[in-house]
Amino acid sequence: MPSLEDRKLIHQREKEHFGGMKFGSAFFGWLTATGMFVLLSALVGAIAGAFGYGANLSTSDLASGSTEAQSTGITAAVVLGVILLVSYYAGGYVAGRMARFSGVKQGVAVWLWAVIIAIVLAVVGFIIGNQANVTERFQGLGVPSAQDLTGPGLIGLLVVAAIALVGAILGGLVGMRYHRKIDRTDFDALEDAG
């Protein structure tokens, strides 16, 4: 019959052997986060379109910064922030469940995959962008141009990165804790049997 100290020792040995950042599980967490973000964004966009939210805004409203355009922009930013948080929470959860240990590290690894992929895509876009005007095609999708990344643009980028990081870490912690419940149940069953 294992004691509480035996449980802690076994858990510590498992963590030493199998713990740490697992980039394989984090990659699948990133895929989950990306897929979830695309699906939720499409769903919210379809709902907003069905109810005509923001449909009465003209280009002059957007250019002048009318109060309706500002409120629509703030609402869209909040909704996209929530979608981003939920998506990276799901990605961190997947990585935490797959890796079993180090939930915070798994969440950070999911976020790092997002940063790495973004950098690679930016470099590829920069290299071929001048040849095929690729960067101009992405402007309609909300991808910021180099001119947009000034003060407010950089702050917005940092906020997005922070939201994704917090969501991924929280998801990684919850995914890891699932395994702690299983471990406790196993040890409790051994104690009851002994």
UniProtKB/TrEMBL annotation:
Keywords: Membrane, Transmembrane, Transmembrane helix
Organism the protein comes from: Arthrobacter bussei
Name of protein: Uncharacterized protein
Transmembrane region(s): 27-53, 73-96, 108-129, 149-174
The UniProt record lists the keyword Membrane: yes
